[in-house]
Design goal:
The termini are far apart. The chain is about 0% helix and about 35% strand. The protein has one domain. It comes from Flavivirga aquatica.
Length: about 90
């Protein structure tokens, strides 16, 4: 098993599938600017070998898709991501 900590700057609502249970995130830091904000959230996910799909919900509806960043992957890789506002 591999443990991942995914760090999201200006996190998004990832919705890979309607049938996938949402992955909870916790608020880490918030920096407010005159024209927006930087929000850092953390999610810890335990992965088994193979492909795993997950989604994040209950996040800001004002996220800019091109500002999303993910870190802490170590030996894992992202094959596909999808951004959608629900």
């Amino acid at each position: 098993m591999k443990n991942l900590i995914l760090l999201f700057l200006l996190s998004t609502s990832y919705a890979f599938s309607k049938n996938i249970t949402p992955t909870p995130t916790s608020l880490n830091t918030v920096t407010v600017y005159t024209n927006g904000a930087q929000i850092t959230r953390i999610a810890k996910i335990t992965l088994l070998a193979g492909t795993t799909e997950f989604k994040f919900d209950k996040l800001s509806p004002y996220i800019q898709e091109n500002s999303i960043q993910i870190s802490g992957l170590q030996k894992a890789s992202i094959l596909f991501s999808k951004f959608s506002k629900v």
